[in-house]
Design goal:
Protein name: Aldehyde dehydrogenase 22A1
InterPro entries: Ald_DH/histidinol_DH, Ald_DH_C, Ald_DH_CS_CYS, Ald_DH_CS_GLU, Ald_DH_N, Aldehyde_DH_dom
Number of helices: 19
Pfam families: Aldedh
Helix content: 40-55%
Structural class: alpha/beta
GO molecular function, one term: oxidoreductase activity, acting on the aldehyde or oxo group of donors, NAD or NADP as acceptor
Radius of gyration: 30 Å
Number of strands: 22
Organism: Hibiscus trionum
Strand content: 15-25%
Length: 595
Amino acid sequence: MAFWWPIIVLAFAYAICRFLLMLIPPNVPSIDVDASDVLDDGNQTQENSFIYIPPRGRTQQSDRKVQCYEPATMKYLGFFPALTPAEVKERVAQTRKAQKIWAKSSFKQRRQFLRILLKYILEHQELICEVSSRDTGKTMVDASLGEIMTTCEKITWLLSEGEKWLKPEYRSSGRSMLHKKSKVEFHPLGVIGAIVSWNYPFHNIFNPMLAAVFSGNGVVIKGSEHASWSGCFYFRIIQAALAAVGAPENLVEVITGFAETGEALVSSVDKIIFVGSPGVGKMIMAKAAETLIPVTLELGGKDAFIVCEDVDIPHVAQVAVRAALQSSGQNCAGAERFYVHRDIYTSFVNQVTKIVKSVSAGPPLAARYDMGAICLQEHSEKLQHLVDDAVDKGAEIVARGSFGHLGEGAVDQFYPPTVLINVNHTMKLMQEETFGPIMPIMKFSTDEEVVKLANDSRYGLGCAVFSGSQRRAKEIASQIQCGVAAINDFASTYMCQSLPFGGVKDSGFGRFAGVEGLRACCLVKSVVEDRWWPYIKTKIPKPIQYPVAENGFEFQESLVEALYGLNIWDRLRALVNVLKIISEQNPVATSKRND
């Protein structure tokens, strides 16, 4: 016992010291970011105070300008240039120069960059959410959940574990290489390109940027033309934080434009990350094939939300409505197909109907609404087409939410939260990605049936399974073809930033977030070296040196048996033969060398 006392005292003292160190706040400088032109204080200039009417049925690309407006009010926000291919290549070239310097930075400097960002985010949550809300129509609560929490979680995970997963990782060397050390090194790829969607403009820019910069890369991000206004403001935050740690200029760039801008980016970088539709994802992949760069694609989703008969109905109904209506269709991880066991189908639908009828939609910054606007122009027409198709094929609308006060020019930017029953898989609503506040609910009778239904989709991003038996829920989820699954919860996988995120089938491939996403920004290099250098060096055994001895193959056979034989006696016998062959002189080989 006397032996253990000193160890216990030292361990206790160490724990106390660690605790005391946690009480000392880190020295994190503050940064100043000009936000005067993004705050809606009611004093907009006349130039920026009119209602914007976007052209219908054609792209803005011919205008060389990315026009920006608030989808909830149609107020004009300004414009940004649509960069030409030559301008994109110049931005990438500048980032490449900066990256060569940043690649030599320490993890201490990179962590300080993250801490500065985190401090600014925590102190300016309302500003960040308001900018996101104005540009995409989402509510402040949805912006906090999808923009702030996920980004803060990613930063804290990188601070805690990022360096550990980027350090060399030693692996076993196997039987034939016992005298060697084997390791995997993770080096920066160079310049990462990212083309991201509009649904979470803050997080979609910060997500690839954080992983790329922390792993020593530069990054050029093309934000969506539907969220360029907010993206360019968020870029200022990144620039200020980089300057505060002495990072080289142009290490991170945020560019604006349309399709040709994105094509030029794919052609210029060392890896591309794309978040968007399957159709555009295929074009990105084809373009990337020209330069053979790695691609990560996070594409569409049609997530299944499965409710077994043994659940707490009021609780799960509330979660289901949140999953369906999240950000009024801006739910990149939202559920779009709801399968409810027939024994509780009526009760569940009644509970959902009650909740949805209490939901109100309206301009998110004008009052307290549960749901905001739809970001994409003319998307409400697509949603109505899907609902009409379902109704024509036998579906029934049982509930719709209400609208608040809408401006005359913004009516088309809103769609009422809608619940449909009696749906089936012949309806487009159950097959095509909706991206809207629509909740189609279908019955199922057995676990086998619901697994088959859930897999009857060309998408495979995620699923959520609810059951009073956690074992049953896990068994169902394990059979669903998707990249992420939540058991008795919804979208919780994305809040665990240690986990990779991505899908299968038309939902894409590759992963971001987690260890896999961080290392995907790296050149993964395998390295083997002598374990006891210079005392033991690798030499070619004499029987297989050139010119190869007559018994060279016999030597190889015995060596393979000695290393990999199935029982110890065969291996020992083979080892004796190996040693015998090495010790013997080969007169034929000797005479050849003498000649």
